[in-house]
Amino acid sequence: MLRAVLVRVGRYVRAGSSFIIHNFPKMVVSFESKNLASELNYLAEQLQASTVEIGSDRVLNGSGTIWRSDGLIITNAHVIRGWQTSVKLSDGRVLKAKVTAQDPQRDLAVLRVDATDLPAVTVGDTNKLRVGELVLAVGNPLGITGALTMGIVHSLDGEGIEAIDPARQYDRKSSIPNLHSQKWIVADLQLAPGNSGGPLANVRGEVIGINTAIAGGLALAIPTQEVERFLNSPHRLTLGVTMRPILVPFPMKRVIGWWVLEVAIDSLAMAAGLVRGDIILCLNGTSFRNPEQFAYLLGKLKPGDRLLIEFLRDSKRYERSIVIGKPKGRGYGYALPRRSRVRD
Predict the structure, then answer these.
(1) Which of 50, 63, 90, 107 is an active site residue?
(2) Is there a catalytic annotation at residue 107?
(3) Exactly one of 50, 63, 181, 196 is catalytic; which is it?
(4) What is the CATH number of the domain that holds 214?
(5) Catalytic site residue 174?
């Protein structure tokens, strides 16, 4: 596949076997491959075959990525309307799809269609991704089926950014959950309404993210490891408390805390000994840089993990440690294992 020394993607002209960037006339981008056009065409065809349209002919909600050949499709939660929808494959088939899991906090959803031998993507390792790498995004923006856009990785940490949801970018800024705390792949490429849920891939054709939003002209994608974590544990852990964020004054600074208003029966919070009036300061040693981070930190945990809760009670600081058990009911609450200990 393509092996390139890439400085910046901009307007370019062909110069023998190289490309001269107009914005940087003294910088030459050299490609070892002499068949750039054919290789890009091959990549585009592979990614387009694994990208579906979600919605109907009248209302296109967004895109989806065929994650597994047995009919499992990944998209963004904000693309989904209800628990039933339809998808259009690249070969023209329109199939009914059932939403089997969705999490608005992570902005991810799983669809299932009754089909086999679908052209699934090759999932890449986001941990190997580097800033400056060339990436490609496929989707169905503005009704254009299988549109391909190209750019470079801008950063691998999207904290503290303002984002606009591509599906609503002309209306208002989006309050995307965990925007300031979730890890994002930020790429210098163009997205538009309809791109959400489509794949972001490297030049080897490996999908390394799910396109989700735009921020200041940059594209935001959810890394593949977050998608796999969601597939392994689609139901988000809940602490079982009603609470509100407050600023807690300390001698040197003020920090964000969560004031507990109510504790649910048979919840993790009750098992940890939390009571009304406690102020949660940290989860597993991590303080809250913003209110959204609380749900993000809980969402990273799974059964068997230990959760350390630091909180204030009557101006004194306490720590309680519990072990997360298996999900029960619909999976949105977790039980405490019998042998788990609660300790100060």
Answers:
(1) 107
(2) yes
(3) 196
(4) 2.40.10.120
(5) no
Residues 124 and 103 in one domain: yes
Computed over its alpha carbons, how large is the radius of gyration of the chain? Answer: 23
Q: Please check whether residue 344 lies inside any domain of the structure.
A: no
Q: Are residues 176 and 64 in the same domain?
A: yes
Q: Which pairing describes strands 12-15 and 185-188: parallel, antiparallel, or unpaired?
A: unpaired
Structural domain contains residue 11: yes
- Reference 236, options 172, 173, 177; nearest CA is 177
Q: Are residues 262 and 207 in the same domain?
A: no
Domain boundaries, position 317: 241-334
Q: 197: exposed, middle or buried (C-beta count within 10 Å: 0-12, 13-18, 19+)?
A: buried
Task: Tell me the C-alpha distance between 210 and 200, whole Å.
Answer: 6
Q: How far apart are CA 24 and CA 10, in angstroms?
A: 9
Q: How many domains does the chain have?
A: 3
CB atoms within 10 A of CB 169: 16
Report pLDDT digits (tens) over 270-293. 888 999 999 999 999 998 887 778
Same domain assignment for residues 204 and 277: no
Confidence of residue 28 (pLDDT cuts 50, 70, 90): very low
Whether 196 is catalytic is yes
Element (H, E) at 281: strand 279-283
Distances (CA, A) of 190 to 152, 175, 180, 194, 216: 11, 20, 21, 12, 11
pLDDT digits (tens, 9 = 90+) for 205-218: 999 999 998 877 88
Evaluate whether residue 342 is within a structural domain.
no
